[in-house]
Amino acid sequence: MPAPAGETRPAPAAEVDLEMGGNPEPVPTSRYLLEQLLLDTGIGTALDDAGVRVYGWTQGSYTASSTRASNAPTVFNDRDDEFVLGQNWIEIVRPIDPTRNEFQLGGRVALIAPGYDYKYTLARGLWNGQNSRHGFDSVYAYAEAFVPGVGPNGTTFRVGRWATSIGWEMIEAVATPFVTRSYNFTANPYTHTGIQATTELSRSVVMYHGLVTGADVAFDPAATLGYVGGIKWTATDGADTVAANVFVTGEGFDDRESFQHYDSYNVVWTHVLTDDWTCTFDATLGRAPDTDPLGVAAGRAAQWYGVAGYLAHPLVDHLTLNLRGECFRDDDGVRTGTAGNYLAVTVGVQYEPTPWLWLRPFARYDDGGDAAFEADGHMFSGGLEAIARW
User: Can you give the CATH number for the domain in which 192 is found?
Assistant: First the structure.
């Protein structure tokens, strides 16, 4: 998790295509307002002929909690008793279709322009001079090429900045069930910058490997060579998906650049229990060989690990119940600021009065030991998130 500058999905599944790179990113099957308006112009027709999609959303939330000012160490909705305009998100994408056995070029640019969430998504070395409440970030920016004949079913090569494959929850508001993110999400990388190759070994197995500049660091002296990769298996009936992911640099704290490097290991399993129930388990282990000598771990090696479980259940048309339970251990306080065991339970619903408007009230309880939440060991929080897709 990058330090804030100046200061994850069952419900939307019908609107998300699973990318081969190990991470789901939203490519809507529907056309919302922006594309509908563009299609009435020559620009929209040209984009459509080129296979380019343009869409976005505006997401805001209000959170009240038992704290006085900050909901830390939770992220994105970290302010108590405040409305937060989290994401004005615009995305331009030309998706790759690996089922077409032909050479293809594609890519994606996704921007927060502006939004509060930029404080967390910024990569070291990109747009770091901002100190406003709402700012800008080019969250994803990459080009892709699908090359048939490389591997059993072709290989997609990617260069640029993209979402990590570590963990299940996502930066995108429309690709995760709650505005209040899990501890695993908080502790894991958000994005990587570098090169990646994704190969479909069979219709059930996908493998991906990349060389990157670290976790949440782009073009900066703090960059270090890292590896991110994994393998994903999907059952032929689609009822089960298992992904094993790893991110390794072998580096710790960079004294010269005051930047913390670390390694992450992750397994995600999704299982369709019945037509009405879907569950997901996300397990993460992270470690650093050394840390900031002036930080909470006083230069020692550090590790953290957690498990989060999710349930999604459609109640009636346009209304889905989402549940999350999690436990997280931060041995040295490096990822949360306070060493200890963290337990959290979150419940919420997603109501879609129209396909373009999502309303998501939630309630959450956290137990963090002695003094994790403004000198208190417990935190109650709840609120409402609204997403308008356009």
Answer: 2.40.160.10
Task: Answer yes or no: is 1 within a domain.
Answer: no
Residue 324: pLDDT above 90? Answer: yes
Q: Which residue has the tokens 């996704």?
A: 110
Task: Give the residues across from 85 on adjacent strands.
Answer: 60
Give residue 26's pLDDT.
62
Distance CA 196, CA 124 (A): 20
Lowest mean pLDDT segment, chosen from 14-23, 242-251, 296-305: 14-23
* H or E segment to which residue 326 belongs: strand 319-330
Q: Where are the alpha helices (DSSP H) in the chain?
A: 33-39, 42-49, 118-121, 183-187
The answer to whether 210 and 197 are in contact (CB under 8 A) is yes
The helix (run of H) or strand (run of E) holding residue 312 is strand 302-316
Q: Is residue 231 part of a domain?
A: yes
Domain count, the chain: 1
Contact status, residue 32 vs residue 356, Cβ threshold 8 Å: yes
